[in-house]
Amino acid sequence: MKIKIYKQKNIFSQKGNVLTFLKKGQNGYKGFGEIYFSTIKPKKIKGWKKHKKMNMNIFVISGKVKFVFYDDKRKKFYKKNLNENNPKRLFIGPNIWFAFKNMSSKKSIIVNFSNIKHNKNEVLNKKLNQIKFNW
Amino acid sequence: MKIKIYKQKNIFSQKGNVLTFLKKGQNGYKGFGEIYFSTIKPKKIKGWKKHKKMNMNIFVISGKVKFVFYDDKRKKFYKKNLNENNPKRLFIGPNIWFAFKNMSSKKSIIVNFSNIKHNKNEVLNKKLNQIKFNW
Fold first, then answer.
1. How many angstroms separate the Cα of B119 from the Cα of each of A62, B54, B67, B115, B122?
2. Structural domain contains residue A135
3. Does position A131 have pLDDT exceeding 90, yes or no?
4. For labelling, which of A80, A101, B58, B77 has a CA lying 20 to 30 Å from the CA of A65?
């Protein structure tokens, strides 16, 4: 499955920090189409979704989020946790079912840097209970 | 001065929201070089900085931030406030002195989508008291 975690370089200072996310040409960079932010309330789960074309670079800027991926050929699940205290970049390639849950007691905020613009024709959706996972 | 505010389209739902930020080709889009996040503690001020080449698209994803710009030819200040409850995109062109203050009682988080990669040779710095502004 085309899922990868990349560590970030961060600069800490007395006034606040600088968290690097993505530079042109880095591993996982597949061009730029659109960037947007998803907020998710405590304990809520968003998904399932599968993008036919979109490559995503994901960052959790606030809160704590569990991402679950489903490989429908091997019938296997994969998990990745991202949280604001240990910032990492998550790369998700196309053709992977995924859903995510806010594991924090506050709102979580997710950054999605995508290689294409939003296009509803390249997204498949399933209801949460159509892919059964023990959240 | 090349400063512009662009309104965002947002999608609100029961689980959380989607906040659009920037699409390729939109007004203010000048290519992609790097994206990073700056956090700033309450009441702190970061600045002054002037980029010789960088075009920035800025978003305040959390908190409340006052941006101040200084036009050193006209000796004039300009102000823009961004906050998480009224999300907007702020475009800042090159050759503008700017500084910003966290006006919130919690940490603020700023997204900077830049058209070039970070390069210390294109940044000028001044101490806060070298450009006097009544914060």
1. 27, 9, 22, 12, 6
2. no
3. yes
4. B58
